[in-house]
Structure prediction request, 350 residues.
Amino acid sequence: MSQALPPYSQHLPHAPGASGALPAASLDPSAGAHRVKRVLVLMYSQSGQLARVAERIAAPLRESAGIELHIETLQVQPAYPFPWPFFRFLDAFPESALTHPPALAPLTLTGGEDFDLVILPYQVWFLAPSPPVTAFLRHPVGRRLLHGKPVVTVIACRNMWLQAQEKMKGLLASCGARLIDNVVLVDPGPTLATFITTPRWMFTGRRGAFWGLPPAGLSDGQIAATRRFGLGLRDALARDAERSNAPVLTGLGAVNVDPKLYISEKVGTRSFFVWGSLLRAAGPPGSPQRVPLLAIYVAFLVVMIVTIVPLSLALQALLRPVLRPWLGRIKHQFEMPSGSATDRLPLYED
Ligand SMILES: Cc1cc2nc3c(=O)[nH]c(=O)nc-3n(C[C@H](O)[C@H](O)[C@H](O)COP(=O)(O)O)c2cc1C
Prediction:
């Protein structure tokens, strides 16, 4: 997909079965004798990438007569542009990194609905969950909907998501939600190449290969293969597995942590806190007082990316034998709860 798609919300409401009830009578053996299960899928995507992932996971649920699916498309006011003008992108940094989102556009849900499972796909912006998703998690309706509910997070991003998921865990805990699984999809290109290909995609909408660099974003194969998670969730719902606190997507290769990026993310998050607070003190989003600070900040960011990231990667390569046990622990910790095991993959191979 080399062309930017229009925002998913523009065509989603017309998708068959995109929201509302499916027939309650079930001929699907996977639905068993249980009552119909209600699943909420939250949706926000700029280029359409995360929407494609969410749609692929949702499809087996929509096809199951024992499941009623509601897709809620999130929008914020004012809407974020895509592709991004350069300074508008930078100006989104402080509020994204410090999880102070803009206002959410009115939802179709009231908060009184009762879902059996919530699928929460999100993209990472500046090492934090994207603001439209954060806005939902801070919104009274979102908080009511999530209270006491099992949640499956689905991340699709460049490749730095560890700290964002830590923030997500805090946000979910503050809603009283139960995180049962986490699925993560990252750009398959080399880390340093993605520091060029992702901004190019964000600023121009073009994501194809260029100058010997790979295309930006997930491959079609990665997205197609996410259907296995939808199948896994469908089967878990049929046996009421979502009611326990145990993950239901283990053995499906849900997440594979590259612990080498942990140090860069830690340093990045610290500096984002300092710079983000400084910028917020200078003025609200869009204010001219922020512009000179943002110009200095972008220079700082580029220096960080071309120094800290390669330096920490090189140091870790050099010290690999010493660091191996620690990196192993980081990998294990951040792969919880769903894990990187793939033993159940044959169950869902097409
Ligand atoms: C403002 C902004 C900041 C981003 N920051 C990160 C980041 O910190 N880490 C990361 O892995 N990806 C980052 N990305 C990439 C997104 O996570 C995501 O992959 C991309 O925006 C495509 O998502 P879409 O489905 O909304 O089009 C960023 C994107 C945007 C627009």
Q: What stands out?
A: The chain is about 45% helix and 15% strand. The two ends are 23 Å apart (CA to CA).
